[in-house]
Amino acid sequence: MSKKSALILAAGEGRRMKTSKPKVLAEVLFKPMIDWVTDAVQAGGVDEICVVTGHCHEELENHLGGKFKIAVQNELLGTGHAVMQAKEFIKANSPGNILIINGDAPLIDAKTISTAFEYHESHKNAVTIISAKIDNPFGYGRIIRNKDKCLKRIVEENDATNAEKMINEVNSGAYWFNCSVLLDALEGIVEMHDKKGQAEYYLTDAIEVILAKNLNAVAYEAGNPDAVLSANDRVQLQLLNEIARKKVMREHLLAGVSIPCPDGVMISPSVKIGNETEILPGTILKGNTVIGENCVIGPNSLIEDSIIEDGVTLNNVQCFSSTVKKNASVGPFARIRPDCVIGEGVKAGNFVEFKNATIGDRTSVSHLTYIGDADFGSEVNVGCGCATVNYNGKEKNRTRVDDHAFIGCSTYLVAPVRVGKNAYTAAGSVITEDVPENSLAIARARQSVKKDWIIKKKPYKWQK
Known about the structure:
Distance between the termini: 103 Å
Number of strands: 38
Number of helices: 10
Strand content: 25-35%
Shape: elongated
Radius of gyration: 31 Å
CATH superfamily of the largest domain: Spore Coat Polysaccharide Biosynthesis Protein SpsA, Chain A
Structural class: alpha/beta
């Protein structure tokens, strides 16, 4: 096969999105639209990618992180003009074929890209337009075919007759071009622009130029009708989110994941979930999260960029950039902040918060406790209302609690401090010194009772 490259048009301002960011950074399932497109293009076997940026191009370029070549469209004068800004990239990849695709079409898939290319190359086409038939073609360019079903032209919504508006095969905005043919067609676009007195340079005019030269220009109908969908405003963006949400959930359901009620469930496309795991309503799974088998996640849980091993239960839990090991149970109303490792069989109850902490296997942290910047061993019992005091105003220090220790209710561990193996702390203690193993630490004032103090201090009528 010949060399494949891609040019992604991503210069849109997003005025109808009511955003100051580049439009292509608007998210579908928490993933910017441009990332959906670049991932699909790369998975479709494309060798090199150039992104045409425009509005707030520095922000978009920072997001792309130097992974792709960049061309800047300083004046937004249409799709044809955007392609012209990347002439040097097209020349560098000639001879060969180039995919022109919009950066706001997140539902395009690798299979559509690769099968359209195979058709394009096998038929030696000058250009192959990826089209699709959709239920509501309003706003899209219509594919006009002749009696032999061959491509005749593409007509935009504003230029279409009533009969043409009834056609439901539309232009996706994605094309496979022969690079040499495209470079010649760009010259033709300029001539048509000047001749027609148009305000912008339209890439669709390239199709007219190519057809006029009797070269092969073909509309290839994609099997995925969603491939043509894009978003120009928040209403369309919400529709894309819903389509993508259902598609991702369906894939997980078919793979053996249980989602008994999909209300409020949102799963990023990069999330992996094991068989027989149950996802309950209101659960959001983001980023590169990996969830094992036989877990129960939710209701109302948020898991981001975390590893959840087999048999874990997370009930009303927020978990970020952490690992929860096998058969642990956390929640309800618990929070796991970044850089935590929650060990096997750990039980953490309501209103418990972990931060940058390692919790050993089978440790119990039942309720109302904060453990931050700490290393707890295995089979430790932590009572109600405890906290690691990890910040002294200048620096953060770590707390260490060894295996089988017992931390009494309302104990405060002032870091840096270590509680040894099998050691106990008495309820209500403020521990500021290390506790040797097998010891009991009591760090509280001795109770003193002053009889009749209230009567003497503040007598009440009923006491008389």
